[in-house]
Amino acid sequence: MIDPISQLAAGARIRALRKYAKWSQRDMAKFLNTDRELISRWERGLNYPSWPMTDQLCNRFQITTDYIFRGRFEGIAYEVVEKLRPLAEQELARLSRE
């Protein structure tokens, strides 16, 4: 069974990645060769990206799947962590209020 809190947190981290890149949902969708609605569903915690799309995100942002799905920063460059952490925290707080 999928934990809805974990799914919501993963969505917040995906949104933080998008904001970090200064991308719109359309920009991210174009990069992943999908549609904006799917990106929106991930960001709202309604479902997870597929493994191939997760891999593309990890390669593009030089992060790990552990960051997306568990919020772990091990193995990620310090500069990236310093920028992503506050964005992810803001997004999770925003989603928790909705």
Walk me through what this model shows.
This protein has 98 residues and is an all-alpha fold. The chain has helices at 4-20, 25-32, 36-43, 51-61, 65-70, 78-97. α1 (4-20) crosses α6 (78-97) and α2 crosses α3. It starts with a helix and ends with a helix.
Mean pLDDT: 90
Broad shape: globular
The major β-sheet equals: none
Number of helices: 6
Strand content: under 5%
Low-confidence segments, given as residue ranges, are: none
- Computed over alpha carbons, the radius of gyration is 12 Å
Class based on secondary structure composition and strand pairing: mainly alpha
Terminal-residue CA separation: 23 Å
Helix content: over 70%
Strand element count: 0
Topology order in helix (H) and strand (E) letters = HHHHHH
Which properties best describe this structure?
98 residues; globular; mainly alpha; single chain; 0% strand; 6 helices
Outline of the structure:
By secondary structure, this protein is mainly α. The protein is built from six helices and no strands.
How is the secondary structure organized here?
Elements: H1 4-20, H2 25-32, H3 36-43, H4 51-61, H5 65-70, H6 78-97
Helix pairs in contact: 1-6, 2-3
